[in-house]
Amino acid sequence: LRRQQDAELARRLSALEGADAAQLLEMLPGAARYRVWDTLPTTLAGEALEEVTGQVAEDLVGATGDERLVEVLGALDPEELSALRQYIPAEVFARLEAQMEALARRQLRTSSEYPLGSVGALMGHDFVSLPVAGDVASAVAALRERQPLPEQTDQVFLHDEYQRFAGAVTVTDLLLAEPDTPLRELLREDSFSLQPEESGDRASQAFERYDLISVPVVDRRRYLIGRLTVESVMDHVRERAEDQALASAGLSEDSDLFGPIWRGARERWPWLATNLLTAFVATRFIALFEGSLQQLVSLAVLMPIIASIGGNAGNQTIALFVRGLALEQIKRENSRFLLRKELAISLINGTIWGGLLGGVATVFYRDLALGLVMAVAMTLNLVVAALVGVAFPLLAARLGRDPALGSSVVLTFTTDSMGFLIFLGLATLVLL
Amino acid sequence: LRRQQDAELARRLSALEGADAAQLLEMLPGAARYRVWDTLPTTLAGEALEEVTGQVAEDLVGATGDERLVEVLGALDPEELSALRQYIPAEVFARLEAQMEALARRQLRTSSEYPLGSVGALMGHDFVSLPVAGDVASAVAALRERQPLPEQTDQVFLHDEYQRFAGAVTVTDLLLAEPDTPLRELLREDSFSLQPEESGDRASQAFERYDLISVPVVDRRRYLIGRLTVESVMDHVRERAEDQALASAGLSEDSDLFGPIWRGARERWPWLATNLLTAFVATRFIALFEGSLQQLVSLAVLMPIIASIGGNAGNQTIALFVRGLALEQIKRENSRFLLRKELAISLINGTIWGGLLGGVATVFYRDLALGLVMAVAMTLNLVVAALVGVAFPLLAARLGRDPALGSSVVLTFTTDSMGFLIFLGLATLVLL
Predict the structure, then answer these.
(1) φ, ψ for residue B234 (rounded to 5)?
(2) How far apart are CA B70 and CA B86, in angstroms?
(3) CB atoms within 10 A of CB A223
(4) Are residues A323 and A239 both part of a single domain?
């Protein structure tokens, strides 16, 4: 019966596309995941492996014998293999390299040369390049021999007699031109190329801005070394967005929602430890005022409001600045203007909403002085939040780091500590 | 001199692409923005207006006279106009509609019919459809007359004798086929089409999964009504990611970083008010224990740690679940498994890290009972965080709402209130 079930499973699985199989693997916990993985046909398994998130890939590679791994990975393109390299045991990788053709081996080395997320690492090696000296008829003849063309071929690249990149002609131009038109006449003046060292983020901006489908990647000496497609760029954009959302909660993009419990627990440790430490240090500022708290216990009740409102306001500033930096709207020249604007906003909102909060506290505790202390403390903590909310993303960006990463830890620590210090300090001075 | 400067500015601006002009407008504050806007050539101004974020568009439209607005907007495609509709004064819109050709007016109505973010609202009306009965030579002849072809034309749509959608042929297939090949032979079996009611999110998944460049949009009766391109899909994906990042900080996607201060202050009010209210209510749980705090002031110092660590742990769970829901990995069948897993993780981490925190507190305050209370309270609050972190996104998704939206408010409110209640309650029972 088990064998019959397996056969049925294999039949159903082989009808899937790589991306669907990848989604299935990610959704299945433990034993079920391995069973599906072992049953997938080799080629499909390779396609799926390339699509799953990091931890799932690691998990599957770890559960697979070397023989099957060589088979599964052998079906991948050099750039796909290069992206998985970190998960593949060295001896398996060496065997794969050895069994490759010379061209593919060279492509694998090229892809591995560039850092993750760069154009060189994202580009593919599957493209068509024809001599620029020919005409449309000769190009069509060459393309017919080359069939099937690579996916997302909207343009054909051209090279000069020294094999250097000479431009591109679009497939539609080829289709609509007379057969005897020289290719040079169809060359687009505004044709775009990328260098392998450029970042995938810059490349994706160009794709969005100029509505590109594929772009030639050219090295410093103008040799064509690869092709970046809108498909890879979209994957990159999506992954970056997901990474950022997870990273801002202190998680790795590789997190496997369906993985083992123990690993799930452990991957949260760095974040837990960081937050425990910062919370512990922030509350030391409360400990400075134990005497005041004992005299006026309402301070203990009200202090978390001041701390938390600062954190929330600062998060808004950070969210706006992270977007402004991503869209390259924020430059050195206008950052001073933006800082002044955020400070003005914090003063306005501190006056209005701090005043309201102070009014409520006055009524609640029948103590006007306490209300005034709350209003002033809230305003000052909003100013602190604006300062950190502007300074942290700008500083991170200037240091070449992701401005979203770690921002919430630093912000919460500052607005908590300063919130406690300002509120309890003012209260001690004024009320006691 | 001023006139000379203006002429120089106009010359430089007219060399820009629409997207570049849009970025410039977004980056400029106040008067400088209006000056650039007034100097932009009409067509470029229209292209730029279509690309800027909502508040900037509203700002610019508000500062423009009706005459110029009609000129600027007159150059836009119906679907672009439809996307800007909410910012355009009704009488200007009516004039634009009146001066349109019948076809464009019909297209404008079609685009306005579908909700924002649906395929119908994202699709363009610029596509090529040819009779399926012809051959390659007749298709090429028809395309030559139709030049220039719409951007991102990777395939040509075909219709039958009743004008119904009959499939698509790729431009590369047309290029490589012999001129007398019937188009029917080149029809792709797996060709993909969308309905206008489908959501842009579903469509973008299909584009990513199957590496599409353009897709026909077909109504229920199989008439071709539009075309969705990878360009619009990429814009949509990017905007959704930005919206989510801003929305989770309680800001609208339309926020204008460089806009006036007063508007910047006001747009943060709903979030400030919400957080003030929830913080105020959460601290009412502290007020229940004023007596205990007076007896043991160290409780006031330690309670923010318990509250804040719960919030941070819950945010991790939410981030994982928001991603899992976006990737459609989480279904009704496996949500129970995931809840059990998150609860197990919170118990494990509560035991380990709560134990550590309790140990530190014991040493600091030379009070073993206090340390035990801290350890137990932290574990319980992590369990609360896991429950809310799983339940909120699942419930939001089931109600058809964005699972990221509002999650942090609900989470922080719960983990703060329950953190104070659990810690101070336990302390009162055990220590006093």
Answers:
(1) -65, -45
(2) 15
(3) 12
(4) no
Residue A277's domain is classified under what CATH number?
1.10.357.20
The residue range of the domain holding A194 is 129-245
CA distance B359 to B366: 10
Q: Which two tokens stand for residue B335?
A: 């949500």
- Judge contact between B317 and B385, C-beta under 8 A: yes
> What is the mean predicted confidence (pLDDT) over A15-44?
85
**Which residues on neighbouring strands pair with residue A226, listed in sequence order?**
A217
Give me the half-sphere count of Cα atoms (radius 13 Å) on the Cβ side of residue A236. 24
* Residue A259 counted as domain residue: no
How far from chain centre, in Å, is Cα B346? 31
Report the CATH number that the domain containing residue A11 is assigned in CATH. Answer: 1.25.60.10
Query: Is residue A283, in this structure, part of any structural domain at all?
Result: yes
State whether the Cα torsion B62-B66-B69-B73 is positive or negative.
Answer: positive
* A186 in the same domain as A152: yes
Q: Which of B6, B8, B73 is nearest to B35 (CA)?
A: B6
Do B417 and B385 belong to one domain?
yes
* Residues on chain B touching A262 (C-beta within 8 angstroms): 348
- Our count of domains for chain B comes to 3
Given an 8 Å threshold on Cβ–Cβ distance, is A175 in contact with B176? no
- A39-56 mean pLDDT: 86
Please tell me whether the interface predicted TM-score (ipTM) of this complex is above 0.90.
Answer: no
Per-residue CA distances from B260 to A89, B29, B53 (Å): 57, 8, 15
Structural domain ending residue among the three candidates A59, A84, A113: A113
Mode of pairing for the β-strands spanning A214-218 and A165-170: unpaired
Q: Could you tell me the CATH number of the domain that includes residue B205?
A: 3.10.580.10
Which of A140, A287, A344 lies nearest to residue B261, judging by beta carbons? A344
Best to test chain A binding among B237, B257, B306 (most A CBs inside 10 Å): B257
Q: What is the DSSP letter of B87?
A: G
pLDDT score for A299: 95
- Listed in sequence order, the DSSP H helices in B248-297 are 261-266, 269-287, 290-295
Among B149, B238, B353, select the one facing A172 at the smallest CB separation.
B149
* Residue spans of chain B under pLDDT 50: none
Please say if the pLDDT value at position A399 is more than 70.
yes
Same domain, B96 and B188: no
Contact B320 A237 (CB under 8 A): no
Give which of A193, A138, A203, A195 is closest to A166, Cα–Cα: A193
d(CA B117, CA B229): 14
Residue A244 in contact with residue A117, Cβ under 8 Å? Answer: no
Chain segment B345-367, per-residue pLDDT in tens: 999 999 999 999 999 999 999 99
Q: How far away is chain B from the Cα of A150, in angstroms, using its nearest Cα?
A: 10
Q: Which residues pair with A199 in a beta bridge?
A: A118
CA atoms within 13 A on the CB side of A337: 15
Cβ neighbours of B401 (radius 10 Å): 12
Closest Cα in chain A, distance from residue B187 (Å) = 16
